[in-house]
Queue: 3 jobs
Job 1
Amino acid sequence: MSGEPFDKRDGWIWMDGALVPWQDAKLHVLSHGLHYASCVFEGERAYGGTIFKSTQHSERLKLSAEMLDFTIPYSIEEIDAAKKLTLEKNNLVDAYVRPVAWRGSEMMGVSAQHNKIHLAIGVWEWPSYFDPEQRTKGLRLDLAEFRRPDPATIPCKAKAAGLYMICTISKHKAERRGFADAMMLDYRGYVAECTGANIFFVKDGVIHTPKPDCFLDGITRRTVIELAQRHGIEVVERHILPEELAGFTECFVTGTAAEVTPVGEIADWKFTPSGITHQLMDAYTAETHPKSAAAAA
């Protein structure tokens, strides 16, 4: 199934309050969300039939929509229930979950204040965001040409579709150059994040990670920081200059899709996936698979 185009798959998608056959989940080509990026989404994972931090993701989805000046016409509880229903209807227990909300097609033009707000939820199997062999060795990252913009120019705390435009461009360019992904700097020249994941570095047993003042403070990012602190590992959130990368020994990225993935190199900087990275990979697995961890114990 993984190689099939997404519009040709079988299954069910929840759309505007009802489950519809997968291939019938369509929108009009003149939808405002397609032309003007009035669209927000979430990326979530289900482990063993339970969507990890589902409510936090639903809360962020609603907040993202508010930042784009529209209101999703469903409560957080209704969104949580719809995600669970969609997962069950597709007979999946380990899956990726994608809620997406957008302005509809009633009006075209920059202003579309009275367009209907739609919500859809898709779920599918997505074992690993990165190639398993690359995960084992550590990802190779390029340096992105585009930078994360000044928060005075974008709603940087929203998980908005339009903010991923430079991410797609940067990841495509990196892949054509033989890299798995690209690390982005921000508008000031500080290290920001990767195209779809937050980034962490290790030096002398301490974790350093960029301060999320102009990019999304990921739910997985916050989870990993909590896990590190729970394991007695100091975490410093600060501005990091690219030239500091030579002094770090480990590097890893985090995200719903990426989970916790080691990095082996960024441009000319080299890292060795080891102690803290592996410890947090195991801790994150235990956090997302509590039943499996309890059975193993």
Job 2
Amino acid sequence: MSKRVMLVDGMALLFRAFYATAVSNYYMINSKGVPTNAVYGMVKHLFSAVREYEPTHVVACWDMGSKTFRNDMLESYKANRSAPPEEMVPQFDLAKEVMEALHIPNVGLAGYEADDCIGTLSHHYREEAEVLILTGDQDMLQLLEPNVSVVLLKKGYGNYAEYTEERLKEEKGITPKQLIDLKAFMGDSSDNYAGVKGIGEKTALKLLHQYGTIEGILENISALTKAQRSKIETDLDMLHLSRGLAAIRCNVEIDFPLEEALLQVDEEKMAWKFNELEFKNWRKNLI
């Protein structure tokens, strides 16, 4: 049987599920006073995707603390983010417990983001399996390569935008690696780094279509308009730093054997956990 592994961006599913119901102050607080809305929604996203794509193996990847090597590169990296809402806090550990109860391994590495773990595992696994990355984060599109697809969650449940290298090329006219250079120019306000001020997506794409890479653009800087040249020269250090921040690492120190990620849900263990959390109507709504 051919292998198909789904790498799950745990935080992306958890936060998406949390805000979908938190907006109406619905936190699914159980009799122990524990909110469960994010975990419930995460499971719903997960099971919907498993039904749709039928993976043989599943791994959940997580951020491990808020400080990573990117904070060593730029102290203010992600410093603009506020603390998670208090109803979210107990659900981080619960989410991992639920994955464990579903016999899905939790993988993360201190000092790195979940993206780096996903990048590394996808690069390893693609030699022996088809790889699907389940996320809501478009940054993951830089990980597209032969045998690797990215499944972006869209609004609601069970709605996806599936990306391959070819689709990215059709839509943006660039390769996955060029996405890193695109982000280096544009910066990322949610991660709190600036890129090159005054150069947005349209100009950056045009330059990348023409010259291929940041190096290609810098080699031909005399051919750019005076305004473009001035902006790039002013923010040249930030351009290089932004590229380093934007690039997902695919060589971090994790080695998780694919056979240990075989999807084999123990119905009894799952039922016990869902009942413990007091998930309502889970047989009807989740599985």
Job 3
Amino acid sequence: MIRVLIADDQAMVRTGFGMIIGAQPDMEVVGEAADGVDAVAEARRLKPDVALMDIRMPRMDGLQALRLLAGPDVTDPVKVVVVTTFDLDEYVHQALLGGAAGFLLKDSGPALLVEAVRAAASGDALISPSITVRLLQHLSAPAPAGGDGGLSPRELEVVRLTARGQTNAEIAGELFISVGTVKTHLGSIHAKLGTRNRVEIAAWAWERRLVS
């Protein structure tokens, strides 16, 4: 079972997410929090597989809570999926830098929410396709030398599609390969680039202008 913590200051949102998660045969809600301080405390106490984290919460916002739970200096990071109403560029940038294992808009729908939880639990990450292209452009920096990272042409194709927010199934369909082959390519890409999840692959691609 994937154990999920839900952190949001709106009770109705917590209830809605709880119903979606609870309806999945492989998931259970193990705790809730209405602000960032409680979210950090509950995450450390319950050690969930995945935490769903809103950004705008009282006492401590979700981005600060994210950094405390999943930042680069955290020894045993929690897999945090940021779920918010606000698709502001700065929020996404901070979430990715803070170690988020996914970024979804609240109107993304139940299917994408469930997929994001499963992706995070398996060590992957998912960003709402509706915001991936626009927002990751703002991570762009001057392309480092040797921009292909030693990736094969097929791996670069997988990277570009991943950076556009496509799921493994969508990538498989577009490239006419199996989902298992996509996962194999992603494993090789992670090894070559030193990335931990899809978010970091997407950021790497945008920084090198591999996606237009």
